[in-house]
Q: What sequence folds into this?
């Protein structure tokens, strides 16, 4: 059932973000939720998980993220591709994207920003470092709570290659490795 | 033929790195080349392309990158998975990884760090910002020259999910998008 979330150990958050999926980033400012599409993010530290991400000044979410210091990184499955592109092609300045794209906002447990019920993973984050915001729009986030949907553990994610071209997750490979 | 490289317009570098492939990062210090495996990287800017990446202090490459300010980001195809894991599981402190893994170093054109002939893309980079090196081992690189192998444009890349588990590129999806 879509929307059933189970807590994910914070030490495993990197396993969801390291592979570079396109994600949705939600914010909430003054009771108004917004969501943007984002592919420019990287892990910085395993545990507690630190994540660096670029939220451009041109994005309406920039202001909310800066003011509230909170967001949720939600990972959409490939089935949501049309929505992911749609969310990226309009602005929260003009539209309520949750309404327009039929996304179900689910209250965050640690942050005001909402989780997205249709997504396969939701990571609640707080901004912990703004040192490079002015120079690169780069925010450093700490994941404070993470959720996955157990029933969709094998759902495919998308990787963006520019202008709506995506590569979906394909074959899985296992090679014995000593390192995380 | 493996190793035939064609220059890639710098404005397209993001299309190679944004999807989050596992990459190899080469350095050269005092005439000695080294290579490490890396998945913690993100684009920061389109053009000139700026890339942020984490090279941990524990990595032998950290010192070389800090001292020389130069590196090459090389993107391996899925066929190199065993090598990619092998490179990540040993240190240049003890071994000559190019020799051990049979990698062909090809002189960089703008930097001293070598390109890797077996890789499908090579991006020559210079460190342009060290502000977050002390805090997060995060280097900001500028891509100064990029190369692709025209004959392997459709080669699959790998996305690391921890401990040698990879998801390879699968199905390709195109959705009309107004944005890069």
A:
């Amino acid at each position: 059932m879509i929307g059933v979330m189970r807590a994910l150990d914070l030490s495993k958050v990197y396993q969801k973000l390291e592979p570079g999926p396109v994600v949705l980033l939600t914010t909430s400012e003054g009771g108004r939720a917004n969501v943007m599409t984002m592919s420019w993010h990287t892990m910085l530290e395993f545990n507690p998980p630190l994540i660096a991400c670029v939220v451009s000044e041109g994005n309406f979410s920039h202001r909310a993220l800066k003011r509230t210091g909170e967001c949720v990184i939600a990972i959409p499955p490939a089935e949501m591709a049309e929505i992911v592109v749609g969310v990226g092609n309009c602005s929260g300045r003009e539209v309520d994207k949750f309404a327009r794209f039929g996304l179900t906002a689910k209250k965050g447990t640690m942050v005001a920003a909402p989780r997205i019920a249709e997504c396969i993973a939701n990571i609640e984050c707080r901004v912990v470092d703004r040192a490079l915001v002015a120079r690169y729009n780069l925010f450093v986030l700490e994941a404070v709570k993470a959720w996955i949907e157990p029933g969709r553990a094998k759902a495919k994610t998308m990787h963006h290659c520019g202008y709506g071209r995506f590569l979906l997750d394909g074959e899985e490979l296992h090679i014995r490795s000593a390192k995380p």
